Amino acid sequence: MTAYDDLMAFERQTQALGQVAGRLGWDQETVMPRGAGAQRAEETEALEHVLHQRRTDPRVGDWLGAIEADKLDAVGQANLRHIRRRYERTQRVPITLAGEIARVTSSAQGIWAEARANNDFKAFQPVLEKVVALKQAEAQALADGGDAYDALLDDYEPGATAAELQAMFDALRPRLVALRDRIMGADHQPAPLMGSFAEPAQMKLTREIARAFGYDMAHGRIDKAVHPFSSGSGLDVRITTRTSPADPFGSIYSTVHEVGHACYEQNIDRDYLLTPLGAGVSMGVHESQSRIFENQLGRSRAFTGWLYTKMAEVFGPLSTPDADAFYGAVNRVTPGYIRTESDEVQYNLHVLLRFDLERDMIAGRLAVADLEEAWNTRFERDFGVAVDLPSNGCLQDVHWSVGLFGYFPTYSLGNVYAGCLMQALRDAMPEVDSHLAKGEPGKVTAWLADNLQRHGGLYEPREVITRACGRKAPSEAPLLDYLEAKFGEIYKL
Amino acid sequence: MTAYDDLMAFERQTQALGQVAGRLGWDQETVMPRGAGAQRAEETEALEHVLHQRRTDPRVGDWLGAIEADKLDAVGQANLRHIRRRYERTQRVPITLAGEIARVTSSAQGIWAEARANNDFKAFQPVLEKVVALKQAEAQALADGGDAYDALLDDYEPGATAAELQAMFDALRPRLVALRDRIMGADHQPAPLMGSFAEPAQMKLTREIARAFGYDMAHGRIDKAVHPFSSGSGLDVRITTRTSPADPFGSIYSTVHEVGHACYEQNIDRDYLLTPLGAGVSMGVHESQSRIFENQLGRSRAFTGWLYTKMAEVFGPLSTPDADAFYGAVNRVTPGYIRTESDEVQYNLHVLLRFDLERDMIAGRLAVADLEEAWNTRFERDFGVAVDLPSNGCLQDVHWSVGLFGYFPTYSLGNVYAGCLMQALRDAMPEVDSHLAKGEPGKVTAWLADNLQRHGGLYEPREVITRACGRKAPSEAPLLDYLEAKFGEIYKL
């Protein structure tokens, strides 16, 4: 056994335990008895304790020091890169600081939930101030002299920098604001789909659509949960959905979104199972998969044409008179405060707002005391509407309460990547729309499996995107062109 | 922090991780995607590795050495007793032997399953010889000069000895054989319940019955699985069942059995949560709870009277003309080879056969090569029928293939304990039958919760039974008296 073999054997068990932790989370959100919460909290904490010990185990440092990296093949070097990055990050953060962050964010989430319920930002402010101060300290420790925000971002999007994202987002924002304005002012406004849709039939349809997009039910399952999510890697990747009688699109498109995440995990080369390469490489690349499944493919004119016929078969005649009207209903853009309920056009504006505000907070340019006002000012500027309540404004997302700074921009980066990938996909597969129109999106997503998903963590995030895009550097332009063309047509701009 | 506090903090995390392992097992048998098995095996192994490391952690030995036991209260001393016993057992078995047992039994189970499917004992014999030799070695190591079989038994029934069980079983066997013979020769033979029973209605009824027996759905859930089982301790105790259209009793009584196990776990004093006292104290005591729920209560004339009316409401008129005939159908005794399908009268004969054979194997008095013949000879003597196939004989149970020697007798010990407890229960609560006849068995099982279940691991197994039984020493007599009276009446002997 070489040091590399020892390290990988140890890592494999750590990965397996990480999967167990994910499975516990799935259990908690789907099947756990309602009175089991207190015990589950201890179970989860015990497992996290084991995982933390393994990730900071000094033997990992010894092995990393003993390995001759240049004797490893590309896979070995990629494994080493992942393990080294994680290990060095854990080493840089003092254990007292890590413990304090865990302690404070754990209580902050409850305080945030209550503050949101009471529409009372002042009740959240003190604990958010603590969280921000702790994340600033963590960022300083991680940055080791470099940019503090970049150090946090690196947890979710290794290798990305705020400056590079800022350049993309600066190009996105004016064209999105302009497109949004033109849509809101358009004479033609598509009608929504009306009616009541039986939930068991929705679940059956949703399962059929999940399979059609390529989701492998032998290595996954679909359950109901309050929030849709995807959980697990490798041979066991589960998703959840929710249904509402008045809104069948909620179930369908949240499922297609999660199927995008899940297919990415399911399609990674099986040789990488339970290694650092055996999971999606970053949040941005993950989101590119969920978004391209959901939007560029799922909300396309071609696929919604098939879906229109299918839903009429399942539910009887629909309120939308034809497939074009149905396409409009799927893609309606309406004013709204909530990011998670947003459409393709406005979604990134929500994210860009958060990206700017959180960078300012971490840099110390924006005091938490001024967050609410800064949010409301920016929201009105970009969306043309004044925020009515904190729960519709800066209290809407859980992220900051649990210390997720540097996470938000990966949502928009994923959208940008999805735009690039769709352009490459159309170049490589001119018959995309004919597959989608036949209700066979799996023939399209197979291209993503072959050209991107199978690599898992082999390449750096940006590298895996440029490889799939024929070595073209990622740019926001394809996404903007796509949105302007699509919504220009729907809204007859 | 004293050494005791340190030990208990460490133990609490170990207990929590043990619960996680149990949850993984539940997941595997109920909801796991069919293609996830290979990954799950690694996840389970990684978690077992962590648990093994913690159970053999030298710090446990240090803490045990530093604690002044006489300064602890009764709860503290009981905790110490459990932890010390487990730690000393792990210390006695050389690590290479423990590893070899794990390796061989892991492959033996598959070989057994195939041999059973092919009715080929010779195919199983070589690996069973290895298992027996390894268990002999383990028993020698554990016994430390004492009785080898007792050392194995101690894993499942701490404090019990084969000699003491033998005395009980020697008194059981002749009266059970005689009762069986008289039943088989009786003129009056109850007719079975005939018909087809919709499975969703069975599941609904089964859930209602589970609740009526006291199962707390806020801390549990019922799912379908190939084999019924109970899983977990404390705030999350789940059970499974199975249904068959022709046999509603299969679902009902396997559920009541598992509810007995589950209520024991649910009703343990919450102060013992995630400590060694927070789980059922032994297999025998556990089985006494499942058996008294299933048989003495569930198959009683009083409860089946209520069930007869209930089932007629749910399923329409039944083939049994009245409640007495229904009671006969529930308690029919028919010839059969399979332990798990057996009735109250014959069940213990199945167990006694295995107890004698496995003691002989561990003692080296019976060679594995002679097991099949020994089994068949004994079976014909006790049951009056010749074994037709190995799958109906010595290949029917999984236990020996996975190294469970010393486990079988706890089934009959549980039945003996159930007999004692039922006698004590009837003395303490003369209105037992009136509760059962009203479909309110929970009012009866509450006595078990108060007098036995709540203690968890506080007392030694035998002590917890004698306390519940008004300090009367356990004896097989109440069970025999109960069986002879009950079946004498049903079969008009």
Short summary:
By secondary structure, chain A is mainly α. Chain A has 20 helices and three strands.
Which fold does the CATH topology of the largest domain in chain A refer to?
A: Neurolysin, domain 3
Instruction: Report the strand count of chain A.
Output: 3
Q: Largest interface, counted with CB-CB under 8 A? A: A-B, 39 and 39 residues
Largest sheet composition of chain A: 3 strands, mixed
Give the overall silhouette of chain A: globular
Q: Can you tell me the CATH class of the largest domain in chain A? A: Mainly Alpha
Oligomerization? homodimer
- Rg of chain A to the nearest angstrom? 23 Å
Determine the number of helices of chain A (DSSP H or I, runs of at least 4 residues): 20
Distance between the termini of chain A: 66 Å
Give the amount of beta strand of chain A, in percent.
Answer: under 5%
Low-confidence stretches of chain A: none
The computed structural class of chain A is mainly alpha
CATH architecture of the largest domain in chain A: Orthogonal Bundle
